[in-house]
Specification:
single chain; 251 residues; alpha+beta; Transferase(Phosphotransferase), domain 1; 3-stranded antiparallel beta sheet; 4 helices; globular; disordered C terminus
């Protein structure tokens, strides 16, 4: 294994790019910081990501977990691509394919719960969207009442990105600017987080701990905005969803 290349560091550990054999991998290491109980929280977040990746195993657009992990280390495929916020160009059907990918994730009973960050949405070198960073993801059983609320929040965040990238003439001519999350209002929990939780979180992580994670990685409101390229087409069909989840529910 070659010397790790630091990719991201925050209050709950770090993500490194490593080469194991001939395969590029991402290695997440859970570790503590000045934040009380941060070591315990870091291990819990890593366990959440591991569980989500295992539920999503085999789904195109989701990196696979690799062998060699521990309770403090998770190893997954490295996705060759760039975050949405740094993409210089986007396929005309990028957001349609992103809607399909998120729907396929939901069909496995998984909600990402952190899609408001553009950095968690990648444009892969294959021209398709990929999702990473499942630390906050939740896995739901059929009939779970929390599932629909969190599913709708995922869709709302994707729709927010779609609006930013296609409004005011930024989007490709003739391409639908409204997706699966159109018309979904922010939940009460999301409103409370925006008013109270997020300001405190930002003050701690950026002011006190000075996390080295680049913030949310959102593209600046003035751009530069990506150019649009021909549509990528569709991925191979996703495996059948778990009965009663995601795919059969409307926003």
């Amino acid at each position: 294994m070659q010397v790790p290349e630091l990719h991201k560091r925050d209050q709950f550990g770090r993500v490194e790019r490593v080469t194991i054999g001939a395969v590029n991998c991402a290695r997440r290491v859970a570790s503590g910081s000045a934040l009380p109980f941060s070591g315990w929280i870091a291990r819990r977040l890593l366990a959440r990501e591991r569980r989500a990746l295992r539920e999503l195993a085999g789904l195109e657009g989701i990196p696979r977990e690799r062998e060699g992990g521990t309770a403090e280390v998770l190893i997954r495929d490295w996705v060759e691509g760039v975050p949405l916020s740094r993409a210089g160009s986007l396929p005309a059907d990028f957001f349609e394919n992103l809607d399909l990918l998120v729907a396929a994730v939901h069909a496995r009973g998984v909600c990402h719960n952190d899609l408001h960050k553009e950095a968690n949405v990648l444009l892969g070198d294959d021209g398709f969207p990929w999702l990473i960073d499942f630390q906050l993801a939740s896995v739901h059983a059929s009939g779970d009442r929390a599932f629909d609320t969190r599913r709708r929040e995922d869709l709302r965040h994707v729709e927010k990105h779609r609006r930013r990238y296609t409004r005011d003439g930024r989007g490709p001519s003739g391409v639908e600017t409204r997706g699966a999350g159109a018309g979904i209002a922010r939940s009460e929990l999301a409103r409370a987080w925006r008013r109270l939780g997020k300001p405190l979180y930002m003050a701690i992580t950026r002011g006190v701990l000075r996390s080295r994670d680049g913030g949310d990685g959102q593209r600046h409101p003035t751009g530069p905005w990506p150019t649009w390229t021909p549509a990528s087409g569709s991925r191979a069909p996703a495996p059948s969803p778990r009965s009663g989840l995601g795919a059969t529910q409307s926003p």
